[in-house]
Amino acid sequence: MDHKPEWVLYNEFVLTTKNWIRTVTDIKGEWLVEIAPHYYDLSQFPQCEARRVLERLWQKKRQQEAAAGSH
Asked: Is the pTM of this model over 0.85?
């Protein structure tokens, strides 16, 4: 990839003297909570940067849903 994406999906993780991922797709974080909300249940995540980013994604999703419901 020519840039460092925030979120990716990958098909293969290879452990050698370095860690490699293959068949990588850059995705939008919002897709994660849309497609698999049960997997990204924040009660299962430790306190870490990924959790903080996911919290912002969930908050954005709730705001969008609230805005759509008010129209």
From this structure: no
- Output the CA torsion sign for 57, 60, 66, 68: negative
| Res 39: pLDDT | 85
Contact present, 25 and 10 (Cβ < 8 Å): yes
Helix (H) or strand (E) holding 38: none
Q: What is the mean pLDDT of residues 14-34?
A: 89
Q: What is the pLDDT of residues 35-67, one digit of tens each?
A: 888 888 888 888 999 889 889 988 998 898 889
Ordered alpha helix ranges (H), the chain: 29-35, 49-69
Closest CA to 63 of 27, 6, 55: 55
In the chain, what are the helix, strand and coil shares in percent, each to the nearest 5? 45, 25, 30
Angstrom distance (rounded) from CA 60 to CA 22: 30
